[in-house]
Specification:
seven-stranded antiparallel β-sheet; three-stranded antiparallel β-sheet; about 40% strand; Pnp Oxidase, Chain A; globular; 3 helices
Amino acid sequence: MTIDSRQLRDALGQFATGVCLVTVMDDDGVAHALTVNSFASVSLDPPLVLWSLQRDAEIYALYESAPNFCIAVLAQDQQGHSSGYAQKGGHRLAAQDFEPGTNGAPLIHNAVVNFECSLERALDGGDHTILLGRVTRVSETNAQPPLVFFGGQYRELK
């Protein structure tokens, strides 16, 4: 049975997700951010999380080999971050949006929470690579509504 990719995408869009930025530093010390909604917890002991990276992403090589990264859960008022860093060619992180984390990966200012991670393993996930990260530090939680995506649109929790 063949599944229509557009139909599958629309069906998967019926699952509400949070929106995150995954951040890394390149070898030249330039910070980059990528918008994802594929973030999930995996294990508390050891502390593991995952996210998936599209194999044909223009910055695939930078992310799939980064030894450290940060996953920032975006707040409702950070929709501009989500839209901006999702654009092709728009992944260079603006200096005013971050500060360096303890592992070198950028922490996003005013995010709901930042998870600093080291790459544990990369796994085949079809047209994506699943990146398993070991959480090495968690920032203080910023008590504000998260940015939510559902049905192809940003939404608010009520």
